Amino acid sequence: MGEFLRIIIELIQAYLVPWTTVYADEQGVRFTLGKWWKTKGPGFHIYVPVLQKYDVYTVTYQEIDCLTQSLATSDGKRIIISCNVGYVVNDAGKMATRVENFDGTLERAARVHLFNVVQALNYESLRGTIDAVQKDVRKALNEQTREWGVKVRRVGITDLQEVRPIRLHNDSFTAVIPLG
């Protein structure tokens, strides 16, 4: 009988009076009839099942690692370079409804902007202006992510090395070997 009563209480909670708790480091996004209705801050929120749904997102500072990429500088030097991107979410509703797979999309956007900055510099200029490169990439990312409800706080170059590419087996595999 006790198990039966527990199941009945859980069903009542799940289908008659569902709620969600949004914690201090989160925002809740309420959808009504499939449309973004409201972004809610921390607290206890009741919603109507079937008609409404809540998704909860962390909005405090987070970082992503970008994949290492092999690029060429304007003077033809082959390099590998990577960066980290730190961001905060200002509006989880925009992030949830204006971009799919946010972290993956941000990571690819960072690599594109890093490519655009690096290809315009020669290797020595690149090594001497890392702070400016990071700032340029951050600025470009902020222009892109503004409509996503996100603010990029930091871009940091984590790896930069001149390399020599080696192709093996009819161009089906590329290895990079650091110089020096």
Task: Kindly describe this structure.
The model has no long low-confidence stretch (mean pLDDT 89). Helix content is 33%, strand content 41%. With 180 residues, it is of the alpha+beta class. It has two domains: 2-58, no CATH class; 62-178, Tetrahydropterin Synthase, Chain A. 21% of the residues are buried. It has helices spanning 2-15, 92-98, 102-118, 123-128, 130-145; strands at 19-22, 26-32, 35-40, 43-46, 52-58, 62-65, 69-72, 78-89, 150-168, 173-178. The chain is built from five helices and ten strands; from the N terminus they run αββββββββααααββ.
Mean pLDDT: 89
Largest sheet: 5 strands, antiparallel
| SS content category | alpha+beta
Q: In percent, how helical is the residue content? A: 25-40%
Q: Report the count of strand segments.
A: 10
SSE sequence, one letter per element: HEEEEEEEEHHHHEE
Radius of gyration: 23 Å
**How many domains, as an integer?**
2
Instruction: State the CATH architecture of the largest domain.
Output: 2-Layer Sandwich
Q: What is the end-to-end distance? A: 75 Å
| Strand coverage percent | 35-45%
- CATH topology (fold) name of the largest domain: Tetrahydropterin Synthase, Chain A
The parts where pLDDT drops under 50 for at least 5 residues are: none
CATH superfamily of the largest domain, called what? Answer: Band 7 domain
What's the assembly state of these chains?
Answer: single chain
User: How many alpha or pi helices?
Assistant: 5
Shape: elongated
CATH class bucket of the largest domain: Alpha Beta
